[in-house]
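Hey,
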Amino acid sequence: MNIFNTIKHLQEHIENRKIEKKKIGFVPTMGALHNGHLSLVSAAGKENDIVVVSIFVNPTQFNKQDDLKNYPRNISSDIKILENSTCDIVFIPEENEIYPDTGSMAKKYNFGKIVEIMEGKHRPGHFDGVATVVGRLFNIVKPNNAYFGQKDFQQLALIKELVNRHLTDLRINIHGCPIVREKDGLAMSSRNVRLNVDERKSAALISKTLFEAKKHFARYPVKILKEKITTEINADKNLKLEYIEIVTDTGLDEIKQWDVKQKMVACIAVQVGNVRLIDNVYIN
């Protein structure tokens, strides 16, 4: 496994692999790796000759400085984890390598309604930061395929839009991979390590509530179901619901009445103590 810290050396290595007609798969991460990340690396390994994983905690996508400061970091552990995976190349740049000047940070994009709800509404500037760093990394790595988890459902939709609208010349195929869950159903997240024992127990209620809603959604109007989810989440002393939205899985249009002809997704954000967690479940 090769480790690079500079764009120059990374690109030289990748270019040599491309001369050999190798197909490049890319998994962008912010580190603090877990089995969810490894499922992306595994998927990339099955479909590509070379797998590149980046580890970069991107400051431009954090709308709260405390969240950036407290984001888990453990590079040595991440490298050990990747050594036992299908990863071939790890890219670990410093901030000034990705953003050599202030003009390269947090560009403004117009993605329309898909960034005006849920995460976009509650985390101002977040998606501009995501689009900026992903666009930067895509232009550096120039992969054939890139892999993202479906836990960040809205982000996945945004990245597909970014590639289809702004990065068409790169011809990157975007692959969404299923959410990987703990035994009690909690969606794996790098932020889970920040939960204390009591909060961790409460956090399992997030997915449990969503799967119960999925099971019984036809019994209730959309508005009533969302109210029931809100009540159940907020009944736990460690949990505070930020939003629950039910949207179509393509355009992220809000569902106000059930339409089984469309694929519908329940998306949720919950504050668990000082940790903010998101999750989603296909309703039908």
